[in-house]
Amino acid sequence: MVNPRRTANNDRTAALNPTEKYADGDTVMDVDLFKSIGMYQLLRPVECGLNSRRCRMAALVVVALTLGLQSMQVCRLYLARHDFQMFANMGVLVINGLMCLLKGYMVVANADRMCATLEATRYAFTGCGGRDPSELRRCRATLSAILRTFVGLSFGTLFVWVLIPWFMASEYDDMPYVWAVVYVVESIILTVNVFCWTSFDSYLVTMCFVFHALFRTMSTGYETLGRRRSSARKLSARQHFDTVAMISKASIADDNYDDLTNHILDNKNIIEQYNAFFDVVRPMVLIQIADGSYSIITLIFLTSLVSDTSISTFG
């Protein structure tokens, strides 16, 4: 005989259409935020009325063209070869820019795999989360606040970067056309970089929060395994004394066994999604760690260089 609860748990994804699956109130993912930065359209273009292949190809072309523009900054490294301070500063900018473009490429290249792992953000992904989504709701509130602050600061920084040259016009009066081209090129590079890093990092942070909440939810589910049904049986027995004899321990044990089986299946699904997520982000995370180390070392060097220059000047 087929267990109705087990069938329901195994078919949770199939039973929901895409719109219901990612309804804003039924998932930890901040759908509105993902749509505002273009991440949702890239991962699920069909739901947004877009052609999947064309949408992702367009994103890949934008990343490739920006990479071509970014390569122009490598020439500036050559021009700065006699000014070590400027060379180090330009090196940080170029490497960080290339890392942002790599994030954009990773999102486009792994869009289908990322989309599959985002299934774990739904409350109904596990039986425990579907019955008691309180932990997932708290995760959603915290995650939404963090991501919206991060995205707001990122685009605020972009706005400042784009606006600053307008207050330095006197420095560009000698070659206005040349500096206009440089300004447009760098504005395009910065804009694409911001979209790339906010998209990848928003996905990364979302999945980290989701897995933490899922494991906490599963832990609570294991702790209460067997208590919920047995307590309900006892309450029913106290209220209906004439049916006490009809409640069998075998029935209770069978229910608990089914719950345990569903918990194990849910845990297996979480681990599978976790492994898929880790395979997607691991290369980029390792590169980002190396880039962060390089940036910190370079900034320390530049700070010490400026300090030595100041001391020698005042000395």
Report on this model:
- This protein is mainly α.
- It has one domain.
- The chain is built from 13 helices and no strands.
- It has helices spanning 4-10, 12-15, 18-21, 31-36, 39-43, 52-79, 84-109, 111-117, 127-131, 134-163, 176-223, 227-239, 249-314.
- α6 packs across α11, α7 crosses α11 (176-223) and α7 packs antiparallel against α13 (249-314).
- Mean pLDDT is 79; it is low at 1-16, 230-237 and 240-250.
Q: What's the structural blueprint in terms of helices and strands?
A:
Elements: H1 4-10, H2 12-15, H3 18-21, H4 31-36, H5 39-43, H6 52-79, H7 84-109, H8 111-117, H9 127-131, H10 134-163, H11 176-223, H12 227-239, H13 249-314
Protein name: Gustatory receptor
Organism: Schizaphis graminum (Green bug aphid)
GO molecular function, one term: olfactory receptor activity
